[in-house]
Amino acid sequence: MVVMGTLYLVRHGQASFGTDDYDELSELGHRQARRLGTYWRQRFGDALSFDAVLTGTLRRQLQTWQGIAEGAGLPNVPQVSWPGLNEYDGDAVIAAVCQEPLPPPDTAEGYKAHFRALRRGLEAWMAGDVAPAGMPTHAQFARDVVAALDHVRQRYRGNVLLVSSGGPITTAVGHVLQTPPAVTIALNLRYRNTAVTEMAFNSRRHSLVAYNALPHLAGAGFEGWVTYA
């Protein structure tokens, strides 16, 4: 009998998009993280446990894990710091394909222009046509994400939590499903804050079970809690 574990991949809560320091959860982002932990505790009760949590080193990722742990009452989960789960630099990706600065993303048109440029930049980066400043190649970025998946397969057999960002999570999904770059980008740009992706795994492979789910934000009282940035 093959023993199957479960890997939960969670994107960070809402960050401070459009401010001088994006790498900080907003007030809503903190509430989203705590709410996910509370939901899991209510759903699983005393059976809730993780063999380990893997996070990148970004503040918004670490703050999200802290909020989940607080909401769930999980103070002693072994934490593995994995820099390969850090997000790509969106500003560097955009700058690689835009000669002129974009308008601030504080209007509807500015927001649309930002994400149109981001899509073009991601396409060029994934194709190897540009080298955004301070970033690895996309091939190396993907290898770092896959290394985290391999670590989970090789080391664990129970529940594992991975708290990261939209880029690494959708790269992991793209690897498991072997999606073409355009599909991976589309998955990335629609991934929601604190959304949960679930994979079953054994020592040989991961299999996708659920994607981009927000069961903790369903129902009355959570209107306006679904965010993308």
How does this model look, in words?
The structure is a single chain. The protein is of the alpha/beta class and 229 residues long. The chain has a domain at 6-88 and 157-217: Rossmann fold, CATH 3.40.50.1240. The chain is built from 7 helices and 6 strands, in the order E-H-E-H-E-H-H-H-E-H-H-E-E.
How many strands, which pairing sense, and closed or not: the largest β-sheet?
6 strands, mixed
Our count of helices gives 7
CATH topology of the domain at 6-88 and 157-217: Rossmann fold
Helix and strand content put the structural class at alpha/beta
Mean pLDDT: 95
Overall helicity: 40-55%
SSE run = EHEHEHHHEHHEE
CATH classification, class level of the domain at 6-88 and 157-217: Alpha Beta
Q: How many beta-strand elements?
A: 6
CATH superfamily of the domain at 6-88 and 157-217: Phosphoglycerate mutase-like
Report how far apart the termini are.
42 Å
The CATH architecture designation of the domain at 6-88 and 157-217 is 3-Layer(aba) Sandwich
Arrangement of strands in the largest sheet: 3-2-4-1-5-6
Report low-confidence residues grouped into runs of 5 or more. Answer: none
Question: Based on CA inertia axes, which overall geometry fits?
Answer: globular
Kindly provide the radius of gyration, computed on alpha-carbon positions and rounded to a whole number of angstroms: 17 Å
Report the β-strand fraction as a percent range: 5-15%
